[in-house]
TrEMBL record:
Family recorded in the similarity comment: Belongs to the cysteine synthase/cystathionine beta-synthase family.
Name listed for the protein in its UniProt record: cysteine synthase
Record-listed E.C. numbers: 2.5.1.47
Gene Ontology MF, one: cysteine synthase activity
Domain CBS: 262-319
Pfam families per the UniProt record, alphabetical: CBS, PALP
Organism from which the protein derives: Xanthomonas perforans
Necessary cofactors: pyridoxal 5'-phosphate
Keyword Nucleotide-binding (UniProt): no
Organism lineage: Bacteria, Pseudomonadati, Pseudomonadota, Gammaproteobacteria, Lysobacterales
Amino acid sequence: LALVAQQKGYRLILVVPDKMSREKIFNLKAMGAQVVLTRSDVAKGHPEYYQDLAAKIATETPGAYFINQFGNPDNPAAHEFGTGPEILAQMDNDLDAIVFGCGSSGTMTGLSRAFATASPHTELVLADPVGSILTQYIEEGTVSEKSGSWLVEGIGEDFLPDISDFSRVKKAYSITDAESFHTARELLAKEGILGGSSTGTLLAAALKYCREQTTPKRVLVFVCDTGNKYLSKMYNDYWMLDNGFLERPQHGDLRDLILRPYNKRDTVVVGPKDLLTTAYQRMKLYDVSQLPVIDDGELVGIVDESDVLLHVYGDEARFRDPISTAMVSKLDRLDVASPIEALLPVFDRGQVAIVMDGNQFLGLITRIDLLNYLRRRVQ
């Protein structure tokens, strides 16, 4: 849509749930689309639900046309007369099963119609995120009034789209976020295919299906989009660690809360002789608010946004001053064996926790690091 609108000179407004990756949003904005972010934690019928909000904006915008891919018959038609015949031609009309995900349901409905006459023996298999209502609907024929939440993007639903037709879908697999992400990463590691998060869901379901078979089958699965749109999430080890999808060796002390250990060269640091503009640029680049100041392997200070701001405000030329002129060198340090409760007074003073093992600097712990740690314990 963004490409077509750009080429045709149309104004395009896209309503996007706030769980979508920032790469997707940047991509759309780069192509000229106006992106309206809305909540991803509300259900259909809520004014902030992305479809309801899109319909409202369309009604209030003179001359607007609401694409509504969830109720637009052109959506499944594109797959019935385009994708379906293309697949069958490339597979020499020999296809035992096809594994797909369902968001708007256009792909599923269109392929179902195409295969109903051209390849009726082809089994349609749904790959669904845990939390979506669709697997229960396929297996039990009932529509749950409650849906969960999931981090995989683009597939799974909390309602049945108007254009959906599940009549030929007899098998469905619920796939966790963790299995989806790890499967997509494994696909990249083993096959060199950089797929998106829903690709992991589909491939995980396809593997489950294949392992259940007792005779050889020709099975097709989609790589739905490129993993370039998920570099800040699924392919980011720090994001995976934060969300509990990767595990580090546990030590039973404060090291378990350090996201970027210094001894693994994960901590972003500066030196006391570096310029304040260097500190500012690294904070921006790595999206952090404070930096340890390291001199000859030893921690000599901390510099944060406030330190830089107070030093340069009123005289921007001070950005060229060395970091030593603005850093805090009198530091409260926590021994690695300290209890977690010892972090709270540090945070209450508006500081980050500096974790030491004797004279050795191990890393920093922030409020969000503690929150992530506590959330992982609940999962």
